[in-house]
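Recall that a protein's primary structure is simply its ordered list of amino acids. Everything else, from secondary elements to tertiary packing, is in principle encoded there. The following example makes that idea concrete.
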Amino acid sequence: MRLHAQFDQVREPRQWLYRTVHNLAPEPSTAYTAKLAPLDPPASDPVQTRPTCPILSDTHAAPDEQLMRLEGIGLVRLSLESLDARSRELIRLKFNDELSYKEIGERTGLTVGHIGYLLHHALKAIAAELAKTGGAP
């Protein structure tokens, strides 16, 4: 849209477009972390109607984008409920507590290889559940 608005002033549109997109793009590290959302709702205020996780506090996101993100988080939570308790615990330790396989093994008594196997199959089950509900491509 910016290019269209000032097209008559731009000598080389392709180069102008690349430079503009590069300048406007967020840093990869902040873009990645902004997409992460805790699996459990914040426990600080049980009456709170709007979670304060980074994915929802994006002031630049349109309301419909925020709603789609909330819906996606809800679908992931529902798919987690379809897993057995051990798989849910491994997912929580890996993604909420951000533990390594070795640290998870120390807590659970499982080997690193077994943890990898269980997490792999748990994530495949989540992806299959999300595909059934339309939450994943």
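The first helix runs from residue 2 to 5. Residues 45-52 have pLDDT under 50 and may be disordered.
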